Amino acid sequence: MPSTEAKLLILLAMMAYAMSAVLNWITGRGKDQTPTRLTMAALAAGIALCLGVVVLRMAHGHMPAVSGFDTFALLALLTGAAAAYLWAVDALGRTGLVLMPVATVWAGLAVVLSGPAYHDFARDTWTVLHVALAAASALALAASAVGGWRYLRKYAQLRSKDPRMFEGAAVSLEQLGRFLRRALPAAFALVTATVITGFFDALQPRLHDFFHNWKTHPKMLAAGITWLIYSIALHAAYARRFRARVAAILSIVGFILLVAVLLASMLIPI
Hints:
By secondary structure, the chain is mostly helical. It contains 8 helices and no strands.
């Protein structure tokens, strides 16, 4: 079980990320899209606190991705770092409006899974590998969801001739579409690896009864649906007769489903 210090740190990180998201939304309404110093300070605090959680857990012998708590704490850390990087290179404008709420959710789920729902996944190598790949998939899909959200927002502004589309960092639809075409293949590959390792993990001898009901198990069904959605999104991003808008919509839907799959994996016994 996580220590009181680890729970407190992840709770403070959740609050810092939430503050960063709120500040980014308030200060960016109709103004320059560059985040303020206070917004970046809140983001930096969230990253530092999540890093403290990971280091503290490792000091007590708990490696990343060996439990639901550790997995979501690591995701909160990596998502915050991804937001800071995208802001630094000015790649996707106000990424905080998407990534900061996502990081807040990761930290919140870590808090939830630190209590009675806490599970240790360090049973065997397959399980740890599967959970680690799921965490990497979540980060890649969060990035593609940011690109999808920005694409849909820019598309709506273009259709309505909204003058705000020329404010702050000017990211074109072509650039956002190119970002989606780069992010989706990596996300799809990670989702595929996650599904494969999860299937093999479920068929281990300790779970021999699972083989008889894997076709109707909620984990397998949700993971299969998520994989199918991202395969369609990947096709839509490259097929000429499809618009990138389809890929953008599916990237967001797929990310929401993946969050549900991750939560189900932590709470539903296999």
